[in-house]
Specification:
With 358 residues, this protein is mainly alpha-helical. Helices cover 73% and strands 0% of the residues.
Length: 358
Amino acid sequence: MGQTANTHRTSVARPSAAEPLVVTVSRVALGGIAAAFVLAHAVGVRLGMEAQAAIYLFGMVALNLPHGGYEHFNNIRQRGLNFQWQYVAGYLALIGAFLALFVIVPVAGLVLAIVVAVLKGGYGGVHVMDAVTGSGHLRSSPQRHLAALVRGGAVMAVPIVFWPGTFETFSSYMVSIFDPGALGQFSHLFGVTRPLIAVGFGGLGAVHLSWGYLGRDGSGSWLVDAAETLLLIGYFAVVPVVVAVGLYFPLWYSLRQVGRHVAVEDDVPANGGILSGSIDSDDPRVVAMTAWGVLIVGAVATATVVGAIYLAATRPLAGAPLLAGGVAFWSIAISIIALPHVVVGSFLDQGRGIWYVP
């Protein structure tokens, strides 16, 4: 295992077929939500924190979690038995290591959780560009990394700038799950980091868009990239961060990964695997039972990981109100699960990876 081959691309102008509908839906969804909150703000309507937390939990647990499991299953189901066991072992090892980091140094765990969200949104998004909208304007590896940093950075950097109070509150809740009050010694830094992040992220965004404009290839890929980047920035600026993150992953990240999969599925090689004979059977009953079994195993595995996090926590709900505490706890849980999602599922998977584009 080493970096996935997709990470080394320098210029892609792959799309030639019609854009998958789900990609269009993702843009309409985020644009519509942003417009709704702008309108609500204009007429003086505010969404309470309990409602925001309920939306987050619905989006991240009910809508988004199943997609994460599907990404891994689809990636490894035809990869060969040895690879599958190595993949699972690496996944579990990273989960254990990340949980240990939260227990021992929860502030460092919080920082890593933020980095994981940026990497997942950013590199996942770049591979959607490769498969669906084109990335011919990204002509070098550094430019691709910058594109990932900006598109993924919008998920965390923009809320820090526009929703600092809520971001700090939930950061404190997340750390307090393992060490109550541990973030307090760093609270004085928020006033310094916020303007630095605003200037730094704004500069990176300007460089990304300018560099892409200079490298545009006539395919229109830069225009799409610029529009989507600005949409993401605007969305996270006007939508309260709890709602914004809770709906971003199911309505943007997951929908667009479905679009990527639809665009490349005919070109994905099959190399066998422990379930390939059953899941690809001509008998629909075999396929249905296999899918059901995989779903149950995935549910049990996820519940086991979440249960381990709960047992390791000093205060699982951080002393916060029920729904807000649930948001903090699930943010920790999904971050711990997402670290191997990014590292094992993409960066260390030489042959394919969860964001595979031929």
